[in-house]
Design brief:
By secondary structure, this protein is an alpha+beta fold. The chain has a domain of 299 residues: 3-Layer(aba) Sandwich (Rossmann fold), CATH 3.40.50. 17% of the residues lie in helices and 33% in strands. The strands form 8 sheets. Strands 31-32-34-33-35-36-37-38 form an 8-stranded mixed sheet, with helices on both faces. Strands 8-9-10-11-12-13-14 form a 7-stranded antiparallel sheet, with no helix packed on it. Strands 3, 4, 5, 6 and 7 form a 5-stranded antiparallel sheet that branches.
Length: 699
Amino acid sequence: MIPPVAPRLKQEFELFGDSREDFYFWLRDDKRADQKVLAHLKAENAYTEQFEEEIFAEMKGRIKEDDTSVPVRDGPYFYYEKELEGKQYKVHCRRKIPGGEGPGSIDEIMDDAQEEEVLLDENEKAASHKFYIVGDVQVSPDHTRLAYTEDTVGDEIFSIYVVDIASKQLLGPVLKGAVEDIKWIDNESIAYVTQDDIHRPYKAWYHKIGNEQSEDVCLYHEEDETCFLDMGSSESKEYTFVHSGTKTTSFVLYLENKSPVKELKYLTPRVEGVDTSASHRGEHFFITKRTDDTYNSELYVCPVNDVSSTTLVLPHRPSVKLEEVQAARDHLVVYERENALQSITVFKLPPAGEPITSLDQGVRIKFPEAAYALSPKEFQFNSPILRYQYSSLSTPFSVYDYDMETGKSMLKKRQEVLGGFQPEKYVTLRKWATAQDGTQVPISMVYRKDLAKLDGSDPLLLYGYGSYEVCIDPDFRMNRLSLIDRGVTFAIAHIRGGGELGRKWYEDGKLTKKMNTFEDFIFCGEYLIANKFCAKDKLCIQGRSAGGLLIGAALTMRPDLYRCAVAEVPFVDVLTTMLDSSIPLTTAEWEEWGDPRKKDDYLYMKSYSPVDNVLPREYPDILVTGGLHDSRVAYWEPAKFVAKLRENKTDKNLLLFKCDFGAGHSSMSGRFDKLKDLALSYTFILRSLGLATRSTSSL
């Protein structure tokens, strides 16, 4: 089958005396209705579909299809989610607790004899949609009403539903144009955030259940186009927080839920370069604050009735990044990151009502592996139980309950992996590569000890991201076994631009230091080859979204280094996108990439923008994906990148493009449908490596 060739229609752009020719600008169609554009995308899909194989069935076979989450004690109920055999979506349920409301214990088990009450069956709602995602599910404080958000297109514009749990009746109109999060103010009202025409969350609203949306009260309107709003609740449920911020500045407003006057007050002021977030317990707010000098953040406490009177309780440490704080009735939980590893420390608080002037030594929870991933789970304010999730590249997701009074920990559930998975067969490592400027860059990796030779002959897949201070932690993904069980080592390059080593790590990989991100990734690849973790001709690379930009830049900078590359929904037309403020989210992105209206930024961004750096040369096998309704990375970016590669490549290697017509930035919505895109990526990698599709997991 002959690969599709996009027609060349010249479009010229000139700025600062620099001229750029874009022969594929015509692929942009904001309405997604141009028949010539759609025909080209369909031709690309038809060409790609011939390479899809049976790895999907193998991946699906590892999933325990009928599964239940660890129940969460909330008031007089245990709440949980379950997945049913053959079904794509979750079912949200609850059962009564025989003993009623209470703090619970780490060894308690839900009484299955109690009648199960189905709150929301996503499968029923999804039946009439090609795409369906539930963003948030929240039960009212008195446990009689359910509010949830859904997206049926993939553009991340959510609708809000509120239903009576007993009768299943819809209470009032469906609210439109929202982000995914909702918060109950009291039993009769919720707060939510809406988006403007370019998908910027910009207004916070108060909604009385049953009222028309036009009657809702605007709590806050963020007029600064570089600022985004998001919303949270205090762990105590006494306050609703609204955060407004950019990549470098944020401030917090708060609403006292029980107050009859529904208005927001400033908890922290808006100060350029200062970033804050908040928690609440009793008579105090805890405020996490980052400045240019205290770049890894420090923790303050202030009285609720005097928010300007702050006391420092956890000072800044240059090597320790303060990531998250959770306040409970008797304890403070602090999530931190040091040396690219996460940690959890629990502090005992004085009795409620007493002043807080300092924190005790705290107790740090210990973890066994060289590289791992942690994430907070459901948090109950009045309970001494801390719930968190632990995993590593070789340890499946594990939910633990930790008693903050006794220090006792209990495993509540470990993800079950079907197909003969034996964790002892796998080895997890943390290595450090040296970049050109001497910076040590961490690499997490996993391989199967009975298959990896470690003699310079092994294939390896290197994954990266490196933007927005996002941490790509070494967690468990069962689908990677389709590669690892065939002898492919999997590695993550924790490159600059991410947040794995703190705020400075991020700042050293953004704006006019963005090249560090791409060069770190290249040096990590060279390190893995030089140290015999990978064969010279078997290095594969993969990244998604901003990580797709990473892959695009790596391909244009060092195409000779790679056997194959997978760029999923890649941000590859950096300059053209950042010059067009009509494209969603563009102006807010200038703090991350630079403002191309400024000459120095323009030239620097052009130097790495993948679409602007495709040259006539040989490239490795490449797979690119996109989503027609993607609101973050428009489909035409990967489409243009592929068209330009087809025009310029001088080799006969594979170049595939898959544009999903029924998805947005996060791929398809169903749990099995999502596997299809990943199955395509992994089949592509295995074909490029010349590896058999027969798994060795049971050998």
